[in-house]
UniProtKB/TrEMBL annotation:
Disulfide bonds join C152-C164. It comes from Leptosomus discolor. Belongs to the sulfotransferase 1 family. Residues 33-189 form the Sulfotransferase domain. This is Sulfotransferase. Its EC number is 2.8.2.-. Keywords: Disulfide bond, Glycoprotein, Transferase. 3'-phosphoadenylyl sulfate binds at R44, S52, K169, G170, R171, T172, H173. SUPFAM superfamilies: P-loop containing nucleoside triphosphate hydrolases (SSF52540). One of its GO terms (molecular function) is [heparan sulfate]-glucosamine 3-sulfotransferase activity. The lineage of its organism: Eukaryota, Metazoa, Chordata, Craniata, Vertebrata. Coiled coil: none annotated. Signal peptide: none annotated. InterPro entries: NST/OST (IPR037359), P-loop_NTPase (IPR027417), Sulfotransferase_dom (IPR000863).
Length: 206
């Protein structure tokens, strides 16, 4: 709490840390700080997410093993290595269980990473509704940046420089063997189905 900025009663403080969702201690700590906290989680196809994760790491550490080598303990047997972070993070149903021990589902909002790209205003509208605030951010505040492959946010409808994702975002993903992708889809399928059923939302990752 001491690290949070000072806010008025009429304001909402938003803090963003990607690792919260997969950190075991986070639900209890946040609950102890404020059990009324609203939680927003951005999720995307776990296979795509793992490849993106690997692509980011490879850009910093070019000598790491192949994606295939890190993904499996035994590929011929289809044994996926769930100890590898890039794989483990996408097991959303497992991580969600820890949060539901402390927070009701009504206090957790899930944003589709795919729809955040194709319909940013729509996803942001749902976020604003979830937070109980007026819909200020609309489709007038976005434009698609072809170079990055992502939408960029305009400061206002007519003025100000657009706010785009940093240089580390929008990298071309490493090419992965289609058979490896299919094996990972099979691995994630039961986790995805359980996740859909728990949150009452089909993200269509199949």
């Amino acid at each position: 709490r001491s690290l949070m900025p000072r806010t008025l009663d009429s304001q909402i403080t938003v803090e963003k840390t990607p690792s919260y969702f997969v950190t075991k201690e986070a639900p209890r700590r946040i609950f102890n700080m404020s059990r009324d906290t609203k939680l927003i989680v951005v999720v995307r196809n776990p296979v795509t997410r793992a490849i993106s994760d690997y692509t980011q790491t490879l850009s910093k550490k070019p000598d790491i093993p192949t994606f295939e080598g890190l993904s499996f303990r035994n590929r011929s047997l289809g044994l996926v290595d769930t100890s590898w972070n890039a794989i483990r993070i996408g097991m959303y149903a497992v991580h969600l269980e820890s949060w539901l021990q402390y927070f009701p589902l009504s206090q957790i909002h899930f944003v589709s990473g795919e729809r955040l790209i194709t319909d940013p205003a729509g996803e942001m509208g749902k976020v604003q509704d979830f937070l109980g605030i007026k819909r200020v951010i609309t489709d007038k505040h976005f434009y698609f940046n072809k170079t990055k492959g992502f939408p960029c946010l305009k400061k206002s409808e007519s003025s100000g420089l657009p706010r785009c994702l940093g240089k580390s975002k929008g990298r071309t993903h490493v090419q992965i063997d289609p058979e490896v992708i299919e094996q990972l889809r099979d691995f994630y399928r039961p986790y995805n189905i359980k996740f859909y059923e728990t949150v009452g939302q089909d993200f269509r990752w199949e």
